[in-house]
Amino acid sequence: MLLKIPQVLDAAGLARARELLAAASWVDGRTTAGSQAAQVKNNQQLPPGGEAHRELQALVLQALDKHPVFFSATLPKRVLPPLFNRYAGSANTYGNHVDQAVRYLPGGLQRVRTDISCTLFFSDPDSYDGGDLVIEHSYGEQRVKLAAGDIVVYPGTSVHRVEPVTRGERLASFFWIESMVRADEQRRLLYEMDMSLMKLRGKLGETPELVQLTGTYHNLLRMWADT
Ligand code: NI
C-alpha cells in the first residue's frame, strides 16, 4: 500500500527542522547504502550522532507518535531512527534500487526488517525542480512529490528512485518500519477497515454493529500481529 499522509509535521516543527537542516554539514550519502544501491546513489546525508541530528529525529518521531492515521497505516513494531538527506547541486539523484531488507538499530544488536519505507518532505515542492520519488509497483509507476510536512509510506519491497533535482534543494527525512503485521495486503485490509470504522462512528455514534465490527478489527489484528 502506498499512502500519502498530509501535514504530519506542523508549521512550528517544519520551521525548526529547516533551521537545523540549513545549519547542518552534510556528507556523501553512500555511507548508508548497500553495495547495489551505492552504485546509483548520489546525494548527501546528515551524519548521525550530533545534537542537531538527535533533535531532528525527536521532532520527526514525536510528530509520528501522535498521528492516528500513520499508526493505523503502519502498525509499527520497531521504527529505525529517521535519517536526513539532501538532493542539490551535483549530488542530486538516487537511481533505481530496493532498500535493504534488514537493517540494525544503533548499537548493532537489534535487527529490524524493513517492511515499510517512509519519506517525510521538508522542502516546498515549488522551491525545487525534479526530485520526484518514483515508486514502481504492480500497477505501474507512482510519482510522489509532496507538500512540506507531508509523508509517504510504501512497501519496502518496491523498486524506487529519486529523480535528479535540477534547481533548488530537496530536503527530506527517510526511515523504515518493521510492522506488527508483516504482509502488505493484511495491513491494507486493517487500515481500510479502521478508517471506515472511524467514519461510521463519526456519523452514527457507537452502535452495537460498530462494537461488533471493532471487535472484528481487533481480532484480525490479534490473528495477524506479531508483537
Ligand atoms: Ni531507497
Automatic annotation (TrEMBL):
<dbReference type="InterPro" id="IPR044862">
    <property type="entry name" value="Pro_4_hyd_alph_FE2OG_OXY"/>
</dbReference>
<keyword id="KW-0560">Oxidoreductase</keyword>
<feature type="binding site">
    <location>
        <position position="160"/>
    </location>
    <ligand>
        <name>Fe cation</name>
    </ligand>
</feature>
<keyword id="KW-0479">Metal-binding</keyword>
<dbReference type="InterPro" id="IPR006620">
    <property type="entry name" value="Pro_4_hyd_alph"/>
</dbReference>
<feature type="domain" description="Fe2OG dioxygenase">
    <location>
        <begin position="78"/>
        <end position="179"/>
    </location>
</feature>
<dbReference type="Pfam" id="PF13640">
    <property type="entry name" value="2OG-FeII_Oxy_3"/>
</dbReference>
<feature type="binding site">
    <location>
        <position position="170"/>
    </location>
    <ligand>
        <name>2-oxoglutarate</name>
    </ligand>
</feature>
<feature type="binding site">
    <location>
        <position position="97"/>
    </location>
    <ligand>
        <name>Fe cation</name>
    </ligand>
</feature>
<keyword id="KW-0847">Vitamin C</keyword>
<keyword id="KW-0223">Dioxygenase</keyword>
<dbReference type="InterPro" id="IPR041097">
    <property type="entry name" value="PKHD_C"/>
</dbReference>
<dbReference type="InterPro" id="IPR023550">
    <property type="entry name" value="PKHD_hydroxylase"/>
</dbReference>
<protein>
    <submittedName>
        <fullName>Fe2+-dependent dioxygenase</fullName>
    </submittedName>
</protein>
<keyword id="KW-0408">Iron</keyword>
<dbReference type="InterPro" id="IPR005123">
    <property type="entry name" value="Oxoglu/Fe-dep_dioxygenase_dom"/>
</dbReference>
<dbReference type="GO" id="GO:0051213">
    <property type="term" value="F:dioxygenase activity"/>
</dbReference>
<feature type="binding site">
    <location>
        <position position="99"/>
    </location>
    <ligand>
        <name>Fe cation</name>
    </ligand>
</feature>
<dbReference type="Pfam" id="PF18331">
    <property type="entry name" value="PKHD_C"/>
</dbReference>
